[in-house]
Write a structure and sequence with these properties.
- By secondary structure, the chain is α/β, with parallel strands linked by helices.
- The chain has 2 domains: about 30-115, Leucine Dehydrogenase, chain A, domain 1 (Rossmann fold); about 140-285, 3-Layer(aba) Sandwich (Rossmann fold), CATH 3.40.50.720.
- It contains 12 helices and 11 strands.
- Helix 1 (about 10-30) packs parallel to helix 12 (about 285-305), helix 6 runs parallel beside helix 7 and helix 6 crosses helix 12.
- The chain binds NADPH dihydro-nicotinamide-adenine-dinucleotide phosphate.
- NADPH dihydro-nicotinamide-adenine-dinucleotide phosphate binds next to helix 12.
């Protein structure tokens, strides 16, 4: 039987459509929800992410406020900026695009965001809410994965889940959300011994390492549900041809542009071994933005309706 594609684009469109009514109600009664985005410096990937987030806000009827301080910005200057958004009554959510320039104390900046405006769920107070399974904004990527699993009715309770990666943004919150859904969760990282063995026991496998196609068929249990969070751009011709020999369209795209995006999981192994999987691109990626919009609308509802 062929594996089910967990279609992030489709689910993202559903989530956004469902938000429309909530945004219209807020706009009619009070004002549009507002999201402030701070992008310090000129990291090319960050610039693309921010552009996409601002565009998605506009499409959803969310007002966005953008600040683009120079790469040389100091911690103190950023604190002043965050404070101005904390006080701005038209701003419901604040997003600080990571990574911040090296001279900036990122922890201090994240801590300075008003927890009731924490669109990414990175403030320690909201991390605590997550650990305690109390309401609060959740980190967008893992929240999107949970939404995808829920909408495809993937059972989690009592199942063995393995999360590879333990970052504050993806791996840790992902593991906690799966735990709260009653999965039996193992977290793996760069010091894990015999990663293949740990992964091969997973009924739900979430890969969030940032290592192109490291997870091959020997890591994937037959019939597992595989969630590939990784986004890696590769340019090596031999590697591209090895990984995408089954996919002429991707090889053509590579011939045109000289690079291709691959996840942390070997694409063909994932298709052949799993019962369901997220493609890269078009799996987890689109959900991250949808959940950012969803978090912003929820924060606006708390500010305006409660
Ligand atoms: P980080 O670099 O912050 O974390 C990577 C994690 O993977 C670390 O915990 C690290 O372990 C672990 N790791 C690295 N190498 C190995 C290895 N060989 N074996 C086992 N574990 C390993 O990355 P992020 O969590 O921010 O992102 C992970 C991936 O997800 C990236 O590709 C990123 O681009 C992508 N991403 C995608 C998003 C989307 O919307 N689809 C959103 C956010 C991220 P250790 O802690 O020991 O160093």
């Amino acid at each position: 039987m062929s594996a089910t594609v967990l279609d992030g684009k489709k689910v993202s469109a559903e989530i956004r459509a469902e938000l429309t009514e909530r945004v219209e109600r807020l706009t009619r009664t009070y004002r549009p929800p507002g999201l402030a985005v701070i992008l310090a410096g000129h990291d090319p990937a960050s610039e693309i992410y921010v552009r996409n987030k601002v565009k998605a806000c506009a499409e959803a009827g969310i007002r966005s406020f953008q600040s683009t301080p120079a790469a040389s910005v100091s911690t103190e200057e950023l604190l002043v900026l965050v404070d101005s958004y904390n006080r701005n009554p038209e701003v419901d959510g604040i997003l600080i695009q990571m990574p911040l320039p090296p001279q900036v104390d990122a922890q201090r900046i994240l801590l300075s965001v008003d927890p009731s405006k924490d669109a990414d769920g990175f403030h320690p107070l909201n991390v605590g809410n997550l650990v305690a399974n109390r309401p609060g904004p959740r980190s967008c990527t893992p929240a999107g994965v949970m939404e995808l699993l829920r909408r495809y009715e993937v059972p989690l309770a009592g199942r063995r889940a393995v999360v590879v990666g333990r970052s504050d943004i993806v791996g840790k919150p992902m593991a906690l959300l799966l735990l709260h859904a009653n999965a039996t969760v193992t977290i793996c990282h760069s010091r894990t011994k015999d990663l293949a063995h740990e992964c091969s026991r997973a009924e739900i496998l979430v890969a969030a390492m940032g290592k192109p196609a490291l997870i091959d068929r020997s890591f994937i249990r037959e019939g597992a549900v595989v969630i590939d969070v990784g986004i890696n751009r590769i340019t090596d011709r031999d590697e591209v041809h090895r990984l995408f020999q089954h996919d002429p369209a991707r090889l053509q795209a590579f011939a045109r542009s000289g690079s291709v995006v691959v996840g942390d999981v070997d694409p063909l192994s994932m298709i052949q071994r799993s019962s369901a999987y997220t493609p890269v691109p078009g799996g987890v990626g689109p959900l991250t933005i949808a959940m950012l919009l969803s978090n912003t609308v929820s924060l606006a509802e708390q500010h305006l309706l409660s």
